[in-house]
C-alpha cells in the first residue's frame, strides 16, 4: 500500500538514528584510505550497485584522489519489501570488464547474497580482480560465506533506512542511518 506523506514523516520522527553523519564521514575516510592503498595505481573500474550504492559511491569516489572509471550494475533482491528474495538483475555495466581491477560499492552488507552473486558474475567476465566495499555491516548470523573487502560500521539487526537505503523507496537521501521503530 502507498504511504502518505504524513505516514512517512511519522516513520522518520519515530525512528532511531543509529549512525550519525559524523560517524558515516569517519567511516568513509577510513575505507577510502584502505582503497587508496590497494588501488591507487590500478586504474580501477568502480561499479555502483544501484540503487542503494548511489550515495555511498558518490561519497567514496570523491575521497579517492587517483584516476578511476565509474559504471553501475543494478541488481535488487528486496524491491519494495523488507525481506529479501531472489536476485533480480536489471542492468549490467556497459564498460568492458576484461582485465580490469573492479571495485564494487554498495550501501549495506546484510546477508551478502547480492554481493556474492555480483562477484560470481564479475568473475565470469575475466576481470583481473574484484573487491567489494559497503558502508554498513548488519550484525546477525544469517550471512553467506562472503565478506566485503572494506566494511564500515556495524549496526543492529533492524530494518534500516537512510544514506542510500530505502524504506519502501523513500529516505535514501537522509544523511544518517535510521532504524524503524520496533524493528
Ligand atoms: O546483503 P543482502 O541481504 O543481499 O542485502 C543487501 C542489498 O539489499 C539492498 O538492495 P535492494 O535489493 O533493497 O535494492 P536497492 O539497492 O534498490 O534498495 C542493498 O542496497 C544491497 O544491495
Ligand atoms: O535494512 C535494510 N534496509 C534497507 N535496505 C536493505 N537491504 C538489505 N537490508 C536492508
From TrEMBL:
<keyword id="KW-0808">Transferase</keyword>
<dbReference type="GO" id="GO:0016757">
    <property type="term" value="F:glycosyltransferase activity"/>
</dbReference>
<keyword id="KW-0328">Glycosyltransferase</keyword>
<feature type="domain" description="Phosphoribosyltransferase">
    <location>
        <begin position="26"/>
        <end position="167"/>
    </location>
</feature>
<dbReference type="InterPro" id="IPR050408">
    <property type="entry name" value="HGPRT"/>
</dbReference>
<dbReference type="Pfam" id="PF00156">
    <property type="entry name" value="Pribosyltran"/>
</dbReference>
<dbReference type="InterPro" id="IPR000836">
    <property type="entry name" value="PRTase_dom"/>
</dbReference>
<protein>
    <submittedName>
        <fullName>Hypoxanthine-guanine phosphoribosyltransferase</fullName>
        <ecNumber>2.4.2.8</ecNumber>
    </submittedName>
</protein>
<dbReference type="InterPro" id="IPR029057">
    <property type="entry name" value="PRTase-like"/>
</dbReference>
